[in-house]
Amino acid sequence: MKRLFILAGFHKTGTSSVQRILSTLHEQEKLKENPSLHYFEAGRMQNWVSHSGVVYDLLANNRESLRKMQEEAKLSRSETGVISSEDFSYLFSCGVLQETIDAFPDLDVHLVYFVRAHDKWIESMYNEDVKRMRVNCEISDYIQSKINSFSFLKAINFSERFIKKENIHVFIFDPKTFSSNIMDLLGVGDIWDGQTPWDNPSLSVNCVELLRHMSMEYPELVHNVEMLIDNLYRLQGHLGLETDLSFMSSDHNAMIFNHYFEESIGLSELSGGPSIPFWTPRTGLFITQSQQSRALEFMKTVISGDIKGMG
């Protein structure tokens, strides 16, 4: 192995789809005499395609997964290896990313970051955190907490302390070209069939709002959250609920845009784009007062029914 790419994040930026593509390609390529890609098998958590296992092992001062990765690199017949975990960026200041890079001194190591429009990222994170019953606050409070604490650029710039700037690659999420651009960077664009072996569906505003209220009224449901989510996906499909509406108002989007204006320019430049923000606030996608009222009525109807039957 000559090159190692570490896909370091971020959460909710298309990373899971890329990981599943790479895992599938690895299974195909490892049977070949000269495979084009080695997607490490060590460091994965059970039933996951990301390498979050090595991240959390290192946090616990357990280096067994990292040692297994070093052995894989020595034995691999591929010139290119890939490690991927969004948690590298989430825990960027904890030293695990630097320790992982330092474990491969003989390889040409590159860091890859995926970013997306801040408004869409915050809303996607909100949906995920509500869905997993990690938060039950309203979207306004969630937005404020994120703009006070989160920065794509801060985590990326922090990486320059232990890797050359020219070895840091930033990709802006675009559903039409994102995966193909990543595959080309890794040198496997010619063997990828263009298919993404996984789709991550969204819950509608109605269902997210339902979950938010349920987590406040019935906190014990967190123990059955996976079953509850599955039931809500089925209910959503049965009722034909829209999934492309937003919780955010135009004021929310403008506030986020203004806060991240300079960062958006910096990310555009890092990705090879012009010195302008890479996104602009959305219009016309927000849930109306009428739709919000219907969502709340839907929530009340379901909550007044048999909750145990749902989850």
Task: Write structural notes for this entry.
The protein has 311 residues and is α/β, with parallel strands linked by helices. Helix content is 49%, strand content 9%. Strands 2-3-1-4-5 form a five-stranded parallel sheet. Helix 10 (205-217) crosses helix 14. The longest helix has 15 residues, at 15-29. It is globular, with a radius of gyration of 21 Å. It starts with a strand and ends with a helix. Mean pLDDT is 88; it is low at 306-311.
List keywords for this structure.
311 residues, alpha/beta, 5-stranded parallel β-sheet, 5 strands, 49% helix, 9% strand, globular
Task: Give a brief rundown of this model.
With 311 residues, this protein is of the alpha/beta class.
Q: Mean pLDDT, nearest integer?
A: 88
The coarse silhouette is globular
Counted by DSSP, the helix tally is 15
Helix content: 40-55%
- Give a count of the beta strands, DSSP E runs of length 2 or more: 5
Largest sheet: 5 strands, parallel
Span between N and C termini? Answer: 48 Å
**Gyration radius from CA atoms, angstroms:** 21 Å
SSE order and pairing:
Blueprint: E1 3-9, H1 15-29, E2 38-39, H2 52-59, H3 64-75, E3 80-84, H4 87-90, H5 96-102, E4 108-115, H6 118-131, H7 139-147, H8 152-158, E5 168-172, H9 178-186, H10 205-217, H11 225-239, H12 250-259, H13 261-270, H14 289-303, H15 307-310
Parallel strand pairs: 1-3, 1-4, 2-3, 4-5
